[in-house]
Amino acid sequence: MSQTLLPSGWVEKLCDPYAVLGISMIADDRQIFKRYYTLAKLLHPDRNTKNCNSDQQLATAILSHLINPAYAQLKNRQKRLIAIAMLRSDARVLDQKPLSSKNAIAQEMMEMPTPEAELFYEEAIACYAEAQYKSLDQFYQVTQQITILNLVYLRFHKPDLFLPQKVVPIIPKVEVNPVEFTLTEVKPVLTNYAQRHYQRAIEYVKLTKWPLAVQELRDAIKLEPNNSDYYALLGLVHLKQKFIGMARVYICQALKLNPQNSLALKYASELKIKLGENTNPKSMAKAMSIAALLSRFTQRKGSQVKC
Fold first, then answer.
1. Which terminus of the chain is less hemmed in, N or C, by CB atoms within 10 Å?
2. Terminal CA-CA length for the chain
């Protein structure tokens, strides 16, 4: 298929293979293949026969000229290192010029402490990836945003952290004591898939297995994006990890969806969240920008709580 079926400049400008696939820069071989397999099925010509001819052609062109080359680059050890080196060069250029106002999410990430930025990076990439190929009209813009997040992420790490197959934990190991609090505000869990993720997250919280709890809650939110209980518990998990900024964001989101959420209300005061009152502008801007990302790509709706 002719490359001219892609809009002008796409191949040259979308040169970050991680962004094209919609994966983070710490993705391992299994995650890379899983994402590629998902996209190959989604954009395969046989899957798009019901779409209009132009959409079908665009999907096929994206698969042929962007996704397939990106996967070929990342599955090869040497090519992957070359891709990372090129992105590092772009990251150094990024250090020398301010981000545009369109990149508020990346700006917030740059201002976070490294552990919190790493965690936010993973969650932001997951949100973008979920929306990236839902509509081909937004593919280009979303992919560019992922590229910018990747460049910002590179500012926090040394080159040896990106050798293939090396697992880089997004949360450092810390000594923790058994959790002494009880989740009395947690509601009974039913049997759908989202609530199964939620139930497993509760068990991981009791065992202080924070990364596993975060992953289960992310999966629950994908399935039920309007459930305030999931955001409240995720806020609590971040609070226990001492990621105060992230904790505030998710507790605020829980209260936006349900101002009476008992778990969120319990920790709102500890996080200095005053309902109906504004906090300092910088904290509010951070909460709003992160919330906007999550809201945009999970299409959530809820009553607003100023926090």
1. N
2. 51
Answer yes or no: are the C-beta atoms of 23 and 125 closer than 8 Å: yes
Quote helix, strand, coil % in the chain, to nearest 5.
65, 0, 35
Residues sharing a CB contact under 8 Å with residue 170, sequence separation 6 or more, in sequence order: 26, 118, 119, 121, 122, 211
Task: Give the closest residue to 291 by CA, choosing from 245, 224, 233.
Answer: 245
Q: How far apart are CA 39 and CA 170, in angstroms?
A: 25
Question: Smallest Cα–Cα separation from 241: which of 109, 105, 120?
Answer: 120
The pLDDT tens digits for 273-301 are: 876 544 344 444 444 445 455 444 444 33
- The pTM (predicted TM-score) of the whole model is 0.61
CB 236 within 8 A of CB 204: no
